[in-house]
Amino acid sequence: EAQELLQAIDRCADEPIHIPGSIQPHGFLLVVSEPELQVQQASENVQLWLGIDARSLLGQPLSDLLPTARIEAGLEALSADDHNPFHLSDVSIGLAGAAGQTFALLGHRHRGQLILEFERAENPAQAYDTLYPLMRTFVAQLQDSRELEALCQLAVREVKRITGFGRVKAYRFDAEDNGVVLAEAVDPGYPSYLGLCFPAADIPQQARRLYRENLIRVIQDANYQPSPLIPALNPGSGAPLDLSFAALRSVSPVHLQYMRNMGTLASMSISIVIRDRLWGLISCHDAEPRAVTYQTRTACELLGRILSLQIEARESETLAQRKLDLRDQIVHLLSAMADRDSVVEGFRHLPEVVLGFAGADGAAIISADKCETVGNTPDHEQILQLAQWLGERRDELVFHSDCISRDIPDMPALAEHCAGVMAISISRLHAHYLIWFRHEQIKTVNWAGQPEKQIDRQSGALSPRHSFEQWQETLRGYAQPWDQVVIEGALELRNAVLGIVLRKAEEMAQLAG
Ligand code: BLA
Questions:
Q1: For residue 479, what pLDDT is reported?
Q2: What are the residue boundaries of the Phytochrome chromophore attachment site domain, all occurrences included (predicted)?
Q3: Which residues contact 188 (CB under 8 A, 6 or more apart)?
């Protein structure tokens, strides 16, 4: 059954969301050949917007519809595959001779195609009157905030102010891609999701890849009727049009169902990308359909980028500080060992450092069948048994597990005493080890809705769940995972201890000789 579920989740990731063949109808789209600027594809809804049959536009010069001089100027600034569009806030468009309507225009190139998107015209003064002052406040306050939650809280409050969405939240993905809501700004009447965990399967992998590159997307009305592109295949490439960077890209019907299940008709999400990884999202919802102008989207994208930089700087700082602290402790330990001319004596002398170094509850050192312990550990017999088990798999320099019952299933007595273990071998010849232990930490996860594991009969893919009511899961048998900094610290300690052991051996040999 678990296998079937994994396959259903994988199938979600097969949906080619970059080539849906249609757009959201709150604007219209033209694909134009270069350099002739002739219409190659048009969305069917030009009929509704302009009163023109899409088919009658195909092959026509763009100049029949609009003055192309400004477009040509915009194109000059665009590189061959430029996802940052050029933008004109007021383009008058209509068949030559007829009265024109004014639209905002976005143009970008992707995979050799020039894509023009038209949305309702905006007020260009909006940026100066409202957006810039809001951004300035945001950036000024950001500089004063240190804590991650405070940074995120500031960002969601500002995005809510700029956009007017009813609920805005910031969430971070964990190592398994589940997302925990860290901050939320919400109008009365909306359920709060603060602190809840959204499962990884809510956003399949191909969507995460896309969101890493295209930082913002808007779904104006989850009940929309998609407008197909005509013809379906691009005449130049013979392939469906890649809409990865089109603002109007039609979104996955599965996700639209998810939104309706959640009681949201409009959404916008802004990617938080840190070191090329999708770190999290700012996700906005509204119970009613809602439009977001290009200027507002751009302000939000910029805000997201600034937030990402700030989080990255904060993470780097924390990491650097932790590495420094760890190095201090390693030096402390090594000098105690060197002073006493014995690794075991050094270990015995500084129990707080031994434990603090790894954030462990207990530690043991095994050398020559002797076992010394500090803190809270399993009994000696179990530790020696563990050392033997470790000895049978000598290839790993550091062994670590945050779930002994899963990773060392043949030692149930050990798992009864602790849940996490990290070990380094401290001799090249013998089964000598330094081992740290961590207690179980019973973990409660507040999921946003109980998993329903519904599999769609037609597609074989997972269906979105219907309830987002808090559902608590209790996880047993896990310790706090050993993080990369500690594991690398342990490796460093290992190398240094091996050096001490070696030097001692040489001294002994000299004495004997
Ligand atoms: C996309 N799913 C998304 C997006 C979000 C979520 C934010 C991005 C699109 C958007 O901006 O609305 C889910 N919404 C959430 C989460 C929170 C939230 C996690 O508010 C947390 C706070 N969805 C499912 C299942 C499938 C699925 C089972 O629940 C797979 C079959 C698919 N979700 C799915 C797809 C997309 C998506 C395909 C991409 C939509 C697109 O961009 O076309």
A1: 95
A2: 147-305
A3: none
pTM of the entire predicted model: 0.89
Predicted confidence (pLDDT) per residue in 170-209, tens digit: 999 998 999 999 999 999 999 999 999 999 999 999 999 9
Q: How far apart are CA 271 and CA 277, in angstroms?
A: 10
Which ipTM score applies to this complex?
0.96
CA atoms of 17 and 29, how far apart (whole Å): 17
Contact 31, 40 (CB under 8 A): yes
In terms of Cα–Cα distance, which of 181, 170, 202, 182 is closest to 282? 170
pLDDT reported for residue 132: 85
- Separation in Å, CA 400 to CA 372, 436, 486, 491: 20, 9, 10, 12
Q: Directed axis angle between helix 294-340 and helix 484-512, to 10°? A: 20
Helix (H) or strand (E) holding 414: helix 412-417
**What backbone torsions phi and psi does residue 321 show, to the nearest 5 degrees?**
-65, -45
Closest ligand 1 atom to Cα of 181 = 22
Distance CA(326)–CA(493), nearest Å, equals 10
Residue pair 215/280 in contact by the 8 Å Cβ criterion: no
E-only strand ranges, 263-347? 266-274, 277-286
Average pLDDT along the chain: 91
What is the model's pLDDT at position 369?
A: 73
CA of 165 to the centre of ligand 1 (A): 18
Q: Which residue type occupies 332?
A: H
- Ligand 1, pocket-test mutation among 182, 250, 258, most atoms within 8 A of CB: 258
Tokens of 342: 């014995």
Tell me if 24 sits within 8 A of 46, measured CB to CB: no
Give residue 485's pLDDT: 92
CA–centroid distance, 334 to ligand 1, in Å, is: 51
Residue bearing the CA closest to ligand 1, atom 39: 207
Classify residue 1 as exposed, middle or buried by CB count within 10 Å of its CB (0-12, 13-18, 19+): exposed
* Percentage with pLDDT > 90 across the chain: 67
Tokens for 27?
């604007």
Q: Which of 275, 225, 246, 199 is nearest to 105 (CA)?
A: 246
Cα separation of 16 and 3, whole Å?
A: 23
Neighbouring-strand partners of residue 436: 363, 422
Q: Assign 304 a pLDDT band (cuts: 50, 70, 90).
A: very high
Whether the bond between 199 and the residue before it is cis, its omega within 30 degrees of 0, is: no
CA atoms within 13 A on the CB side of 255: 20
Residues 437, 408 contacting (CB under 8 angstroms): no
Q: 3-class SS at 363?
A: strand
pLDDT (tens digit, 9 = 90+) per residue, 226-237? Answer: 999 999 999 989
**CB-based contact 200:178 (threshold 8 Å):** yes
DSSP symbols for 428-495: SSS--EEEEEE----EEEEEES-----B-TTT-SBPPPS--SEEEEEE-S-PPPPPHHHHHHHHHHHH
